[in-house]
Amino acid sequence: MTFQHTSGSPHHFLAQLAGGWAGTSKVWLEPEKLLCEAPMIGNIQLILDGRFALYLYQGSAQGEPQHGLFTFGYNTTLNRYEASWVDSFHNNTAIMFCTGNEIENGFQVLGSYPDPNGGPDWGWRTEVELVDTDHLVITAYNIHPEYGEAKATESRLTRVKK
Prior knowledge:
162 residues
């Protein structure tokens, strides 16, 4: 069975993301205090007849190699984007599940992770924005239970041409 993704649909949007990407990634551990900036490469492939996208990426933070996987798709039954994150940087051995909605030129999803000090969970909001055919920005925000939202990571990527 072939999955249909009509022009303008969320699944058509996912199809536009497929391919290789390269650029830079920035990391903030505290609001407004850039920790590091490093090159990043990744690849987005469509899986299961275009129902989902799989983003595998690698970069570094403070000279240490970092790898991750971001799986996302659009749930047509619940009319929302759904995603999962696993990485070697902040998720440890956990899978972060996220849900969200469409935004201009993309989508945003919200998940949470446990406070390592035993306090309330922190939120993690990810925005995926296709600026144009060849430029993709993936931005994530930490959401502190008391102090609110602050930028945590930003990847500015350019499509790799073959």
